[in-house]
Amino acid sequence: MSRYAIGDVQGCYTELRDLLAQLKFSADRDRLWFVGDLVNRGPRSLEVLRFVRALGDNAITVLGNHDLHLLAVACGAHRKRKSADTLDEIFAAPDCDDLLGWLITRPLAHYEHGDLLVHAGLVPQWTVDMALSLAREVETALYTDPRMLFDNMYGDEPRRWSAKLDGTDRLRFAINVLTRLRLCTPDGEVDLKMKGKPPGKHSQLQPWFEIERRQSAGTRIVFGHWSALGLIVRKDVVGLDSGCVWGGELTALDLDSERPPVGISCAGYQSPDSE
User: Fold this and answer.
1) CA dihedral 71, 72, 77, 83 (to 10 degrees)
2) Is the distance from CB of 147 to CB of 76 less than 8 angstroms?
3) Across residues 79-86, what is the average pLDDT?
4) Three-state secondary structure along 147-178?
5) Whole-angstrom distance between the N-terminal and C-terminal Cα of the chain?
């Protein structure tokens, strides 16, 4: 049995199936770990959702920012669709309610066999246990009052972690870190605007996983979300967003072996300028 971690699919169903064929994936033997953003920007988000849902326990997926955006729009939250969204096929599908009902129950973080799966990252002050606990708080809100959560989800404040955060500020910060984080400072101030390559060493803002003495060090963290960063495979971090929907690759890594990553070239359905 193998555990294959797979980068941001974003509706690129053809590439996903080609990648699994390349891996010789067997649904009755292997498991897939998706870093989130199953949907949006690519052309076949509906088929991706149907396929991953049908895998049952053989697929683990955490929620990414595009997955949450889909759920927020479906819930009627105060958020406009974006011009680059490719979600209409999902809303028109006869099994839309079943698919969204499955998606909203996906976790924001998953820990197993010493590996933590998240969509984006962790601030330096969070241990793995703290990240999992905060993820559970968001998941509880999704289950009990999704409209409240989505109406208050959008926004970049607060910018710095504090254990004293509560209410919607606490939930928003947890969501932003787990699904949007790329850069932060050593004291936990986040920047949610920058999307390109990491700044130089002179900058206070650094990739979250490069911050010295971060509390989650020692656990391998598997993430996506940062296509401009490209593929990163290290002992402590695995970054798998290699820009499939932008014309890069869809990448998979066997988490339980020394095999090199496997990538499938993608057609490129969007321009990065539209992100």
Assistant:
1) -110
2) yes
3) 79
4) HHHHHCCCCCCCCECCCCCCHHHHHHHHHHHH
5) 36
d(CA 78, CA 90): 19
Residue 39 makes CB contacts below 8 A (sequence gap 6+) with: 9, 10, 11, 45, 48, 49, 66, 67, 70, 87, 90
Contact 255, 29 (CB under 8 A): no
Give the model confidence (pLDDT) of 156-173 as tens digits: 999 999 999 999 999 999
Query: What is the C-alpha separation between 178 and 165, in angstroms, rounded?
Result: 16
What pLDDT is stored for residue 268 in this prediction?
A: 83
Write the burial class of residue 218 (CB in 10 Å: 0-12 exposed, 13-18 middle, 19+ buried). exposed
36 half-sphere exposure, CB direction, 13 A CA radius: 30
Interval 17-35: pLDDT, tens: 999 999 999 988 999 999 9
Beta strands in the chain (DSSP E): 3-6, 31-34, 59-61, 110-112, 115-117, 183-184, 190-191, 206-207, 220-223, 232-233, 237-239, 249-254, 262-265
Distance between CA atoms of residues 100 and 193, nearest Å: 28
Whether the CB-CB separation of 10 and 66 falls below 8 Å is answered with yes
DSSP letter assigned to residue 272: G
Nearest to 4 by CA among 15, 219, 27: 27
Q: Which domains does the chain have, with CATH numbers?
A: 3-274 (3.60.21.10)
